[in-house]
């Protein structure tokens, strides 16, 4: 692993084992990739390609059957590294009786943040994601888009060095997508390493430095965005994607 590489997969294999007859189905097959420090990397692929599985392996939520997954130079799931990671799952769960402020306070305490730091950090993040006016509203009154914004905030509570996002634009209206693109763009400018899955090619085209394409569990292509859509037109990325998976 090079000094500037913060996420790395080396010949990863992962099978899904069904409860019926213990049948094994390949999910990841010899996946190797690396993400440099400060880079924004977009992982693309059809439904069922293995994108979420790969992300979970990097987080230590799943173990690869073979191969190595490293984050910040240590094996995926290392406790010290987990304190420097932010994560937003595709379908996050929130305690509906809590307010947004209370939820962020809870998440921050899991990172052993001090109460004073948490108060300031929570206020700042709720303002950043556009929820400052709804900070004291119980989460069961939040819309799906508002919950997604809160999910972004909780992923940033510990000021992570590495940010993993699974479909971060899910449930957002055009205004919300624009706001989240700005948030991720600002993080990119500050040097945060971002790894995310998405089906929304315009967002990938705007945000990413590089992309990888998974298909049937295999990394079938990898390229820099400037080489795929140098004109800035996401339709060039769409053509590239379709040519790789068809």
Short summary:
With 246 residues, the chain is of the alpha/beta class. Helix content is 37%, strand content 27%. It has helices spanning 51-59, 79-82, 100-110, 115-128, 144-155, 174-190, 201-207, 225-228, 234-245, and strands at 5-17, 24-36, 40-44, 66-71, 74-75, 85-88, 162-166, 193-197, 210-215, 218-224.
The beta-strand count equals: 10
Q: In the CATH classification, which architecture of one domain applies?
A: 3-Layer(aba) Sandwich
Which residues sit in consecutive blocks of at least 5 with pLDDT less than 50? none
Shape: globular
In angstroms, what separates the terminal alpha carbons? Answer: 33 Å
> What is the H/E string?
EEEHEEHEHHHEHEHEEHH
Question: What is the SS-derived class?
Answer: alpha/beta
Taking strands numbered 1, 2, ... along the chain, how are they ordered across the largest sheet? 6-7-8-3-9-10
Please identify which CATH superfamily of one domain we are dealing with. P-loop containing nucleotide triphosphate hydrolases
Largest sheet: 6 strands, mixed
CATH topology (level 3) name of one domain:
Rossmann fold
Percent of residues in helices: 25-40%
Highest-level CATH class of one domain: Alpha Beta
SSE topology:
Elements: E1 5-17, E2 24-36, E3 40-44, H1 51-59, E4 66-71, E5 74-75, H2 79-82, E6 85-88, H3 100-110, H4 115-128, H5 144-155, E7 162-166, H6 174-190, E8 193-197, H7 201-207, E9 210-215, E10 218-224, H8 225-228, H9 234-245
Parallel strand pairs: 3-8, 3-9, 6-7, 7-8
Antiparallel strand pairs: 1-2, 1-4, 4-5, 9-10
Helix pairs in contact: 3-4, 7-9
């Amino acid at each position: 692993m090079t000094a500037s590489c913060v996420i790395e997969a080396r010949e990863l294999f992962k099978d899904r084992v069904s409860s019926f007859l213990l049948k094994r189905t390949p999910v990841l097959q010899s996946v190797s990739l690396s993400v440099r420090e400060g880079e924004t990397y977009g992982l693309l692929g059809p439904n069922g390609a293995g994108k979420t599985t790969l992300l979970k392996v990097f987080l230590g939520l799943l173990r690869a059957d073979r191969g190595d997954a490293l984050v910040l130079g240590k094996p995926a799931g290392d406790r010290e590294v987990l304190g420097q990671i932010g994560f937003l799952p595709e379908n996050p769960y929130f305690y509906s009786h809590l307010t947004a402020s209370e939820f962020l306070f809870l998440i921050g305490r899991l990172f052993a943040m001090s109460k004073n730091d948490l108060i300031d950090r929570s206020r700042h993040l709720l303002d950043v994601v556009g929820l400052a006016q709804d900070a004291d509203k119980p989460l069961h009154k939040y819309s799906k888009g508002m919950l997604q914004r809160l999910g972004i905030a909780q992923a940033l509570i510990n000021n992570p060095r590495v940010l993993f996002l699974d479909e971060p634009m899910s449930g957002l209206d055009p205004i919300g997508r624009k706001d989240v693109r700005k948030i991720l763009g600002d993080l990119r400018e500050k040097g945060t390493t971002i790894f995310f899955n998405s089906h929304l090619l315009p967002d990938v085209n705007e945000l990413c430095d590089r992309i990888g394409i998974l298909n049937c569990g295999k990394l079938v292509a990898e390229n820099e965005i400037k080489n795929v859509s140098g004109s800035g037109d996401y339709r060039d990325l769409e053509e590239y994607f379709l040519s790789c998976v068809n």
